[in-house]
């Protein structure tokens, strides 16, 4: 059901704040939008546009070099707060396929893996360095190679990252978890029979 | 040989393991799946695959997020997109055959208020819901956590969920809470102490004499905001308070089955010697009525303190962050918090919309008047809470004091039903999140407990409720 995860090469768009919450990434008033609606247009809506609809000039998504970025850089605890998967849909809908940050809100990271938005954890110093590079050299490109599990920063330095092997396989092959679980129907049925007996 | 001592979390986890995957993730069986009116996309995902629900009998739903709290008639929702959210839940319930406590049902309410209230949430269960504050139900000794929409679809189809085993953290709060200090203050204090990422990747078990001494309502508040500390879930070991709360509720066993259940629930507490990955101890006596000044729940201080000064920040990054928050909040460093005027007051939400919360707020409102120019709302957490409050005459106290008395729902906690503040307005709120724009674009939120919110309503400013209590 998912598109296979590509080898990514793109400018990196820095959101250089700690604790950016999902209420900022996708404000609550867009939560009722259908899954196939244009969530990307609502990404960071209230930080990206003034109340009159004009663009906030220096917000990263409005900087000419970064408009088509597919890789985001974030601070500590990126996308904490509400469990809204819509925040992932907004990042993905805008074109992002990976977010590199020192740490993530738990549910966001899980949601990302299930929707083709790869959360990449790198040490805080490395992310800070990459953010500094992006600001100094907005056109500099970063590569995220999921197969090799490495990030190549704009300065050419290579940084390995960890990813859950199953999620990696699902992302690379475009398989979704539900099909896998459904193939274990019998195990679930056996558990349910036991559950009935134990009565809990 | 004795088996290894286990934590309560481990006991619940072990009991729900269906199978393990080579990467170390565990397929867990879900006892209760709670749904609200924001779940439509998960049903779309299910439909797109031609899949039916596996266990509708384990699934319970109620509309809360999108329903305005001035009417109970879905057809009266003016915004068609919001109306559709409520109606689609009704259609899905009819098509799939799960229980729905709809708008005309006396059991309707915020999903996290309704679950415990109906005895759907029980000790030892695994409970999930597509909403981060599912952690609330852990107050009963369940393992309860919020999941994303794709995961909701996965649970609908398989009644199971893949999870990597989280770490455990024990937060012991010892001693007695001071006058006017509630569970809300305890959890704000915990979050201010460990930070919003302080418990990321962990399940918290709350323990200690101050936690044991909390009512069930208080424990629900405590576990509710556990997510604001970054944790997946919070738990409190079931005890006499838990059993007394559950006994006689709609979905709870009776007779011999009740006795057997209680015996089983007693064995859930962490074994002596069980090992936690982390341990935090706090002194209850140091906790004051607490209020937030910034745009993250961790920016919380005692109500009698001053707005912190960014100049004293430990790092330039933190300084910039604090300056940004103060600019958004319209506050100056050094200003006394208890002088800050409010425009609106919101008493409600799954954090503080239960009967005990309304009693505490009514205690302050009784015989007083909402200050000139302040709009104050009381939104019960459920239809049942509303009836109970009316039976006790609390609605009359609120109305006479000038509060609006509304129907049950999430309302201004999130504002997805259209109930939001105007840009620049300052709200004293008993909800759980004070992020920028959470209660409407440009709106400034101060989180606090229900009595404090009522105090803010009658004085027109953030107020140390202990002052009003002395005044009587
Ligand atoms: S009251 Fe607020 S936090 Fe609770 S379920 Fe509703 S929107 Fe979520």
From TrEMBL, chain B:
UniProt keyword Amino-acid biosynthesis present: yes
Cofactor(s) annotated in UniProt: [4Fe-4S] cluster
Catalytic activity: (2R,3S)-3-isopropylmalate = (2S)-2-isopropylmalate
Domain of life: Bacteria
Cofactor comment text: Binds 1 [4Fe-4S] cluster per subunit.
Keyword 4Fe-4S assigned: yes
Pathway annotation from the record: Amino-acid biosynthesis; L-leucine biosynthesis; L-leucine from 3-methyl-2-oxobutanoate: step 2/4
Enzyme class: lyase
Assigned keywords, A-Z: 4Fe-4S, Amino-acid biosynthesis, Branched-chain amino acid biosynthesis, Iron, Iron-sulfur, Leucine biosynthesis, Lyase, Metal-binding
EC number(s) recorded for this UniProt protein: 4.2.1.33
Self-association and partners: Heterodimer of LeuC and LeuD.
Function description: Catalyzes the isomerization between 2-isopropylmalate and 3-isopropylmalate, via the formation of 2-isopropylmaleate.
HAMAP family xrefs: LeuC_type1
Protein name: 3-isopropylmalate dehydratase large subunit
Gene: leuC
């Amino acid at each position: 059901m998912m598109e296979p995860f590509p080898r990514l090469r793109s400018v990196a768009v820095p959101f250089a704040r700690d604790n950016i919450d999902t209420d900022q990434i996708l404000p609550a008033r867009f939560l009722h939008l259908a899954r196939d609606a244009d969530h990307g247009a609502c990404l960071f809506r209230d930080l990206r546009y003034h109340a009159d609809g004009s663009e906030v000039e220096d917000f990263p998504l409005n900087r000419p070099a970064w408009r088509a970025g597919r890789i985001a850089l974030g601070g500590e605890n990126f996308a904490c707060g509400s469990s809204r998967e819509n925040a992932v849909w907004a990042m993905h809908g805008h074109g992002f396929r990976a977010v590199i940050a020192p740490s993530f809100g738990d549910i966001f990271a899980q949601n990302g893996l299930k929707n083709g938005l790869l959360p990449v954890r790198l040490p805080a110093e490395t992310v800070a360095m990459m953010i500094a590079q992006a600001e100094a050299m907005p056109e500099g490109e970063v590569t995220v190679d999921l197969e090799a599990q490495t990030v190549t920063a704009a300065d050419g330095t290579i940084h390995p990252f960890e990813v859950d092997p199953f999620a990696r396989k699902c992302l690379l092959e475009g398989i979704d978890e539900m099909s896998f679980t459904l193939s274990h129907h019998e195990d679930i049925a056996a558990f349910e029979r036991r559950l009935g007996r134990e009565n809990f | 040989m004795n088996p290894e001592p286990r934590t309560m979390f481990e006991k619940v986890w072990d009991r729900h393991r269906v199978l393990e995957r080579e990467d170390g993730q565990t397929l867990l069986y879900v006892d209760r799946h709670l749904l609200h009116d924001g779940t439509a996309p998960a049903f779309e995902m299910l439909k797109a695959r031609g899949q039916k629900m596996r266990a509708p009998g384990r699934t319970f739903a109620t509309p809360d997020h999108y329903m305005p709290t001035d009417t109970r008639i879905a057809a009266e929702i003016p915004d068609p997109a919001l109306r559709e959210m409520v109606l689609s839940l009704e259609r899905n319930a009819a098509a799939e055959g799960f229980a729905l406590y709809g708008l005309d049902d006396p059991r309707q309410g915020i999903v996290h208020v309704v679950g415990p209230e109906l005895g759907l949430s029980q000790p030892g269960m695994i409970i999930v819901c597509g909403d981060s504050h599912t952690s609330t139900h852990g107050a009963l000794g369940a393992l309860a956590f919020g999941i994303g929409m794709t995961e909701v679809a996965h649970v609908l189809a398989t009644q199971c969920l893949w999870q990597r085993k989280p770490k455990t953290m024990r937060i012991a709060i010892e001693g007695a809470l001071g006058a006017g200090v509630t569970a809300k203050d305890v959890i704000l204090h915990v979050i201010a102490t460990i930070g919003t990422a302080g418990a990321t990747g962990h399940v918290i078990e709350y323990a200690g004499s101050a936690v044991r001494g909390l009512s069930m309502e208080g424990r629900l508040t405590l576990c509710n905001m556990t997510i604001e500390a970054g944790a997946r879930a919070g738990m409190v070991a079931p005890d006499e308070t838990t059993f007394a709360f559950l006994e006689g509720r709609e979905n709870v066993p009776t007779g011999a089955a009740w006795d057997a259940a209680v015996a089983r629930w007693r064995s859930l507490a962490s074994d002596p010697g069980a090992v936690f990955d982390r341990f935090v101890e706090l002194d209850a006596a140091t906790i004051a009525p607490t209020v937030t000044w910034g745009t993250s729940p961790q920016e919380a201080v005692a109500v009698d303190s001053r707005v912190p000064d960014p100049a004293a920040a430990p790092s330039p990054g933190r300084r910039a962050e604090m300056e940004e928050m103060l600019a958004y909040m319209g506050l100056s460093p050094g200003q006394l918090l208890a002088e800050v005027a409010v425009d609106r007051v919101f008493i409600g939400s799954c954090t503080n919309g239960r009967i005990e919360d309304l009693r505490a707020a009514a205690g302050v409102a009784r015989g007083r008047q909402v200050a000139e120019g302040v709009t104050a709302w009381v939104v019960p957490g459920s239809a049942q809470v509303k009836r109970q409050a009316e039976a006790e005459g609390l609605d009359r106290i609120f109305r006479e004091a000038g509060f609006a008395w509304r129907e049950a729902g999430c309302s201004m906690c999130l504002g997805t039903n259209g109930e939001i503040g105007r840009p620049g307005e300052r709200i004293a709120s008993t909800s759980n999140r004070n992020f920028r724009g959470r209660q409407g674009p440009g709106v400034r939120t101060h989180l606090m407990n229900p009595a404090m919110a009522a105090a803010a309503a009658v004085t027109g400013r953030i107020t140390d409720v202990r002052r009003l209590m002395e005044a009587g």
